[in-house]
Amino acid sequence: MNKIFNTLFWIFILLGLGTFGLKFYLHNDTEELEAEVGKLKVQLRYNPVHSGGDKIFGYRVPYDIVWRAGSGDVTEIHFSKDAIVEGKKIKAGRYSLWVKPSQENWIVILNGETGQYGTDYEPHRDLYQIKVPVRNFEEKVDPLHYGFVRDQNLLLEISWEHTGIQLSVQEA
To answer: Which of 9, 66, 116, 138 sits a CA distance of 20 to 30 A from 104?
Structure first.
């Protein structure tokens, strides 16, 4: 009996370590970005995803369906203090970032739940929805890319394939 218990114990330990190792191996490509505008610090964490030659928007990422805007764990954004994003006041804090793409506009969703795997979307936890027009590019962007650009304000860019958006961010 003791021998069976010890064997099962070590099997579960090894399975747990293997699962942790696999998760670490699969998610070690996490990108972290940070930018400041005035006294506002914006931090973003996401997992890039490659197209693999697939057509993305309208196919692999369907239109009018909420998407995690990355792979693996959900994309997260943190505002160190109150911010104004595309004219909408956002309270300081950490949010999961989701996108509902369409051909002409994307709806960027800031959700109050963070830390979840990217398919665990809880729409009742949505705090902000921001509609942004789509920008089209001649040159293909792959993998999925987030970036900060300085204009009069700070711009958060999200782009993949031949499509993307820009969000204006400023301190409140």
So the answer is: 116
**Is 18 inside any structural domain?**
no
| In-domain check, residue 155 | yes
What residues have CB less than 8 Å from 37, skipping those under 6 apart? Answer: 153, 154, 169, 170, 171
pLDDT tens for residues 95-143? 999 999 999 999 999 999 999 988 899 999 999 999 999 999 999 999 9
Position 152 scores a pLDDT of: 79
Query: Would residue 97 count as lying in a domain?
Result: yes
Asked if 57 and 163 count as a contact pair (C-beta separation under 8 A), the reply is yes
What digits encode the pLDDT tens for the residues 17-40? 666 555 555 545 899 999 999 999
Tell me the CA distances in angstroms from 86 to 164, 169, 170, one per residue in order. 15, 7, 9
The residue to which tokens 């394939």 are assigned: 161
